[in-house]
Amino acid sequence: MTAVTIFAVLDLLGTFVFGLSGAMVAIRRQLDLFGIMVLATATGVVGGTIRDILLGDTPPAVLQNLVPLAVTCAAGLCGFFFFSLIDRLNRPVMLLDAVGLGVFAVAGCQKALVFGLELPGAVLLGMISAVGGGVVRDVMAAEVPRVLHEEVYALAALAGALTYGLGLRAGLPGTYAASGAILLAFVLRVASVRFGWRLPRAPGGPR
Amino acid sequence: MTAVTIFAVLDLLGTFVFGLSGAMVAIRRQLDLFGIMVLATATGVVGGTIRDILLGDTPPAVLQNLVPLAVTCAAGLCGFFFFSLIDRLNRPVMLLDAVGLGVFAVAGCQKALVFGLELPGAVLLGMISAVGGGVVRDVMAAEVPRVLHEEVYALAALAGALTYGLGLRAGLPGTYAASGAILLAFVLRVASVRFGWRLPRAPGGPR
Amino acid sequence: MTAVTIFAVLDLLGTFVFGLSGAMVAIRRQLDLFGIMVLATATGVVGGTIRDILLGDTPPAVLQNLVPLAVTCAAGLCGFFFFSLIDRLNRPVMLLDAVGLGVFAVAGCQKALVFGLELPGAVLLGMISAVGGGVVRDVMAAEVPRVLHEEVYALAALAGALTYGLGLRAGLPGTYAASGAILLAFVLRVASVRFGWRLPRAPGGPR
């Protein structure tokens, strides 16, 4: 029960932080208050909505439960009123975002397994859940999605989902597998930003 | 029966006008005839299709009924042949578009209630139905969706859907609730354009 | 049985070539290895995934079967290591892409008919299946989708799906209808590139 509560709190924390990242992009694009709320909400809930559509679990949670929506609107308001503060707090936001990434990857993988997907499909869906919101945020801001050109981001989500799935298969209790997986995704993501890890580009491509 | 007919006519009118707005964007982007038809169709029917996917009502109406498709293709042809005329008629197109906005918001909310969603989710889905087509139009044209930075647009749709839902809950006959809601969305949208209403931007954001 | 095998091989060939086109766009955009894999996969499998979502056949095939994913990752790696070679081989890639276009159009139409759609909806879904991946590829690369402004592309897919559907209705065996339809889409597409066929632009539009 406590583990479920912790997980639910982390899930809302992830939704909030993703919403905040949407709000910051919206404000940099000089959108108005409503545009900020829309982009915060899209970033916070679209990953889970894509997950639910792909699993056929419709209507998706966001239409049935006001809490995620309230959380992303709160994130939008925080961005609206405290833009310059949050802008300077870049580092803490990145850390929270890395937590959200791991939580969403694990939550997506877990739900996919419950719906009967095999491990590879469930891991893939975990990654899609974790990065989907950010892709929609960037596409709506008419930018190439950050996930396509940023250091280890989707890869951290993939590693988290895979670790969770393999942990379950190895017989670990769900709480342990989830904690380890979230921690791994978090560490991978933060280390990649800290040390500037980059994946190689195509050897023959344009420079 | 008459109310149903009026509603169906308004729905097709909304599809047509949304399709026309897609065609105008396509022509400004110098797309060819086929690109014009595709963008007209996407703008006219994607909102309803997203609604149907989110409600799990698949295949969506557009794949089962040729009428919406015929209407958006007619809109595409109108744009193709009468571009400069329609371009000068900016005002009437905006008025019709405001009707479509209200009709789609109400239709989305209504269908969501029929499918068992609670009021908040149904209102949200009504808004998504109303603005979804325009978002896809702008994303395909590689622009920041107008709904994110234009004056009261999604907000008018939201107000319409909410009025409809609250009207029903207050015991109004569906026709009355729908008419009032469409009228409110229309007036809000037109007044916002006429008086240049704008929502505030973030106080600390870039200028 | 042999026809099914041929079709499955063509389907994987189409997935591979579409994946390759995604990888080439990613490399031109200077994305890293992971971005290349993601764009290759999105381009190769999203068309079929949209088809499955619209038909309500969830979870979609790509989450249940590793083969398409393996194929798009192989396409991504080919793009990564042989970018400049493939870049010079423009013509063969275009030819293979035209095969993929026809195969996907027919496969989408066929599945839609199996799921009980009428002919017009099935033809439309076939076209969507064939061009959907490319649209997502271009939107993620922040470009106006090529299908909107390129010579006869979606039209070739439409012609292929329509030919297949009409062939079945006329009582042709499925293999014959499919072969003829794929051939027609292929010839239309290749001829349009070879002879520079273009559809007209709006007479009153900007130049």
Task: Spell out the blueprint of helices and strands.
The structure is a homotrimer of 207-residue chains.
Chain A: H1 2-28, H2 33-55, H3 66-81, H4 83-88, H5 90-114, H6 119-140, H7 146-149, H8 154-169, H9 174-194
Helix pairs in contact in A: 1-2, 1-3, 1-5, 1-6, 2-3, 2-6, 5-6, 5-8, 5-9, 6-8, 8-9
Mean pLDDT of chain A: 88
Summed up, the helix count of chain A is: 9
Q: How many domains would you count in the coordinates of chain A? A: 1
State the total count of DSSP E strands of chain A: 0
Q: Which pair of chains forms the biggest interface, and how many residues does each contribute? A: A-B, 36 and 35 residues
Task: Note the gap between the termini of chain A.
Answer: 53 Å
Helix content of chain A: over 70%
- Catalogue the unreliable spans of chain A: none
Radius of gyration of chain A: 17 Å
In terms of DSSP E residues, the strand content of chain A is under 5%
Shape of chain A: globular
Oligomerization = homotrimer
